[in-house]
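User: Round two. Same drill as before: sequence, then structure, for each protein.

Assistant: Same drill it is. First protein:
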Amino acid sequence: MAKVILHPLGRPAEEVLAERDYRENLARMEALNRTLFERREEVRGGWGREYVERVHAKGKLTTWERIELLKDPGTAVFPIQTFVNYGRTFGDPPRTSPAAGVITAFVRIHGRLAIVIANDNTVASGSWWPLTPEKIERAQEVGLRLKIPVIYLVDCSGLFLPEQSKTFPGKLGAGYIFKMNALLSASGVPQIAGVLGDCIAGGGYMPIISDKLFMTEQAYMVIAGAALIKGAKSQKITSLTIGGPDVHVHLSNCADERVPDDPTMMLRIRQEVALLPTPAVGYYRHAFAPADPRYPPEEINGLLPTDHRVVYDAREVIARLVDGSLFWELMPHTGEEMITGVARLNGLYVGIIINNQQMTPHPEMRARTRPGGILYREGIAKISQFSRACNSDGIPILWLQDISGFDIGLEAEKHGLLGFGSNLLYTNSTNTVPMITVLLRKASGAGYYAMTGRPYEPVVQLSTPLTRLAVMEGRTLAIGAYRTRLDDNFHILSTDPAERAQVEAGMREVEQRIEADMDPYKAAAQMDTDEIVAVHELRDYLMTLVELSYQSIGYRRVKNPRIWSLHDLAVLTEPAG
């Protein structure tokens, strides 16, 4: 009988880093966190107090007030895709669409985690903007992958028509939402919809396939609203008369039940969720209770350098994320540029893969060292086999990225990194266990792909305020763009002052543009990452995501830890003697 033995990991912060360096890191990180928290509040405010008052004047609650009533008291809400469309404007006069006009978040209801998709009724009456459909579909995808309840709070006046060409057509346009409704239903994923106001056109189709559909007294569902009907048929009629609860609860049978108001709606949805099977989380904890790390997660703010060129001890980050700061490291003596192992988060097993930033011995010339944060042959093979073993054993995988990319040059090509990299990409493309990706700092080049970046469909990808997502750094790209005008030491060849000034200005422009493109808020605005999270918040997010990975049963195999193939991998890679 094999047992999983986890070992203590980490040291007190004062032993890891000089106090001056720790304080400098902390000060820089706190400034970045302030910006993050201020921008969150900006997005959460929608179109401002005036529009909140408009909602209240109609006898309705705002979307965030509804979520507050829906969730279990005292529990946290974990939003995703907060910054979609951040910094963008649409139409004339230009209008913003905070969070693309829809809130998507993990919410705990009667002890069960659900994904809630809720139109923000303070932003153009919940209209669908460019990227709103894709954001809804992303949340539906998470629900489908994890087989967790999907709850729709619909208060949607349809497409924001001036931008309809960016939301109506295309593979992932508004119509794909309804296909996702159907796929969720076909997979047996519970869907519960509450219609709390406008529900026009596509907004009307979205809740119909749900298992339960409730309407408030002032809600309506229509293919076309009263204004359109007046124009097309010259009929003076209200949308409530066309498709209110009198019609859809009692005549068309498109809705199940009517409720008087928003608070009652939230109560009825909670009652329905309570009827679902209880979570399997306790079963899969194998009698282990969640435990705090021995070292506070807040210390990561001081231990993680904000300068991406400065190294740090990745094991100290793990020690501040996992339960009890306990970790079973596998294959520590090979591929040392990568760290792989198993820990518990929220009392549940998770496989962890993280880039080692420190210099490591060259496997063929031990007197030489190699820089960390780069994928070499041995590290690629190591994380590929570890990833496959976790998939075989049913263990969710957490990828903690801080990667500059693959090794390059003659040695890399002779070692066949293209082939080993393809092997890793195949592994992560075909894995079926939930995978979670965190971009700690650098997420560069094909290394971002290889470590389960967003194109490889992690359940959720988180960024931090430090994240730099790009093919390469701005300075490097500028050198590449102007390579023919530089010497072997990357100095400008020309001796003509005007030409030198032109090259310098061009390189500076390229570098600044690439640096701006690497901003995590830009990535989040265009849905290249799911959420920006302060590093001290990572543990809470990760505990929630790992719990979600174990909540439902019957859709994937979770092996008893005694029969993990990881035990065989550990034995086969132990050094002799």
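Second protein:
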Amino acid sequence: MRIFRIAMVQMNPTVGDVTGNVRRMKGWLREARRAKVDLVAFPELAITGYPPEDLLLKPRFLKDNHRALDEVIRHCQGMAAVVGYVGEGGVSQLRPDHPMVVPAGRHELYNAAAIIADRRLVATYCKWYLPNYGVFDESRYFHPGRRIPIVVLNGTALGVNICEDIWLPEGPTRAQAAAGAELIVNINASPFHMGKSRFREQMLATRARDHGVIVTYTNMVGGQDELVFDGNSLIVDQTGEVIVRGKAFEEDLVVADLNVDAVARSRMAHGRKKWLAGRVAGAVERVVISEPYAPKKRARAVGAGAVPLDPLEEVYRGLVLGVRDYVGKNGFRRVVIGLSGGIDSAVTAVIAADALGPAQVLGVFMPSPYTSRESREDVAELARRLRIQLRTIPITNTFASFRHALASSFEGTAPDTTEENLQARIRGNLLMAISNKFGHLVLTTGNKSEMSVGYATLYGDMAGGFAVIKDVPKTMVYDLARLRNRRDNTAVIPKRIFDRPPSAELRPDQKDEDTLPPYSILDPILKAYVEEDRAPEEIVDMGFERETVARVIAMVDRSEYKRRQSPIGIKITHRAFGKDRRMPITNGYRTI
């Protein structure tokens, strides 16, 4: 039986830390060598991290990237490797249907995979399909590839492609299978959003069945600004069955023995003609880099049999990883959070404590004249259960001094949201002062529902460095809180925080529903309008009142200027604010 042993390295690189990334890659290479693998696969752009964005415009960065690849090549002994890096080439590599024009004096750049065998670079694959939607801007930097190498290693024919390439049915996988590839090594930096891992698995199973190949899907893991990469690497056999899964939201080395003879038998059973139908004329190159198959003496590989997570658990794990990596990769040690006694700040504090450890989290309670006794008690109890430090800084006197300073200017006017926002801005100033004095990162606590409709204060509760639940709708905030409470014998979030009606407590007896529709109505409308781009009439047809739909859409449209000034937050939905949804601030188009 012809067995091919592969290792998938589910690593967490840091964008721009080329030296650190290579140091970690060398460690993974040593582990793969001990496992006696035929080939080890690293993620897309593993050397530079993903996405490198405008670092790609720096010539020195590109040179460092190539020096790093040379170092990886020197350490790849006794096995083969597939390594994601930035490739460079001349105009002869430009595919004629690509509209990008190369500036004078600049080489073309490619999102590339180096195929290395025993300290030699034997082939390079350049990504054919460059995503340029949502959070992706690859056509800004890269050119598409035009060649498709087929590598024969230890008697196994394999094709290498990158991320987006495998999502298209007519993509390189089809050409590689038609040219005889039995194994597809696909390397990725595929960002997380809720439900994506299941859709991804279905797509890979379809691609493997349709082309009669084993597909290995090596995905990056870790947080990078607003993106989180979930890992969940996969190997799917030629029938579409999952052979092994990598861990979710953790680094992992996934080692598996692949029965390549089973692919050949399957193809014989289905007829050779089917596998020649997708050949791309002139694109495929065959590279033989080893002798015909000779079995190695080695222990049987044990794959990492990770179990798929519940979708809500995936979101929670993604938020924890996003906070841990944003804080750590940017050189912070501690975070500070304004605790109000509400569900949003409670969930933010729990996520931060899980990500960093309770000792690294400072909670600050800033009561105003309108803060209830229940809020004071709930904040204290939350901090006790979480074992985080709590500091209380009353703002009543500061608020009074602001009103006194503005008294003559505001003479003859009635109190309104101006006075409410003053309290939020005082709190923002206090949190930022603590940040400046002690170097703590301020984590803001606003959710997606509030950010959508502008129910937030510029330079107040929006002031901070990282918005943990910015992409989490209010109804999901409660779901995450319940999920986290089920983990421990004693619920970490006090029950009363769930039971009390949401309130900013910026005026007497204030409730969120004084200003907003109930969140059970608001969130579905926001999902339809913000994430799905549905027209007002379509949303009304979903069963919502026309007046409510019109009011919500108007609030969303006029709040773009606020969102543009808010801190970045972790993407967990299909369409998040920021890179995913880029609306002009000055905008005369109205849907209502």
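The radius of gyration is 27 Å.

User: Perfect.
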